[in-house]
Amino acid sequence: MTLTMKPYIIPLLNRSLSPSPFIPFFPITKQAFPSNGFIPSIVECALYESGTRGDGLRIELSAVESPSFHVIGSLPGVAVLAAAGANGPGTGDLESEDGGTKLKWKAPDSGTHGTSVDVSTDGSYILEDGEDERKWVRVQVVNSFMLNVPMSTFIYLSEVYENAVSSDDVTAAEATAGDTKDYTVDIKAESPMDLLDVKVWLESPDDGIFISDDGVVYVQPKSEGADALSFARIASGATQSLFLRRITSAGASASTGILNRVRFAWDGY
């Protein structure tokens, strides 16, 4: 089954210049990456294991996945490994039922839990919200530690700063003189099938943000259309480098209120 996946946003945040004490990955001066975005989905797919549905594409640096949120809270025997950026920050709800053999998820600001997923076998699973399947969480389950009574708990999602793919701060001297920094992340195909027609583009008010597929020619595509950076195929289990450049203009000042988004779309399973 080949289905079109909708945009995915690199779920990273960035701070810049004092008084902000640090900048994570792709630290664009005076910018911040959002953790709220659109995560792809496959409505008709019956598989909920990790690496399927909207979890098929991940962003990594040195094999470390970039998290969308800090996640606080869980149930006995369940660890929340990741939350889709589409959830947005806030408070979700995780419930178990059927004697601890099923789990379901309700995203922040949603009114409905998603379909219950059988987690009677230890492993990693995707739980989707009942109103928007793009709003998922990935959980790791050790079923023997789950309680055999229905349970419910709040899951708190908060923005990530200084995450796994962080880089150095922009110093006051660099901002005064102007600065160019390059970064590389990996697009990883976690899906059991190849990702096809992968497109990457920017949603950024900052003219100093660029992306490249070879680290030589950098572009600023602003839509999923013809100008988007594209990769025809990323094989299942493989990675594709994405190069990012941040140019800080001389005399730039700090601001944490501007968001820069790097979006992805693909066809896959």
How many DSSP H or I helices? 1
Order of helices and strands: EEEEEEEEEEEHEEEEEE
Q: How many strands? A: 17
Strand content: 35-45%
Helix content: under 10%
Secondary-structure arrangement, i.e. CATH architecture of the largest domain: Sandwich
Mean of residue pLDDT values = 76
Number of domains: 2
Kindly name the structural category: mainly beta
| Spatial sequence of strands, sheet with the most strands | 3-2-12-16-14
Low-pLDDT stretches: 1-48, 162-166
Can you tell me the CATH topology of the largest domain? Immunoglobulin-like
| Terminal-residue CA separation | 7 Å
What's the shape?
globular
Q: Which CATH top level class of the largest domain fits?
A: Mainly Beta
Task: Please provide a brief summary of the model.
The chain has 269 residues and is mainly beta. It is built from one helix and 17 strands. It has one helix at 172-177; strands at residues 3-9, 57-61, 64-65, 69-72, 78-83, 90-97, 102-106, 117-118, 123-128, 136-141, 151-159, 179-189, 195-203, 209-212, 229-234, 239-248, 261-268.
Write the topology of this structure.
Elements: E1 3-9, E2 57-61, E3 64-65, E4 69-72, E5 78-83, E6 90-97, E7 102-106, E8 117-118, E9 123-128, E10 136-141, E11 151-159, H1 172-177, E12 179-189, E13 195-203, E14 209-212, E15 229-234, E16 239-248, E17 261-268
Antiparallel strand pairs: 1-17, 2-3, 2-12, 4-11, 5-10, 6-7, 6-11, 7-8, 9-10, 12-16, 13-15, 13-17, 14-16
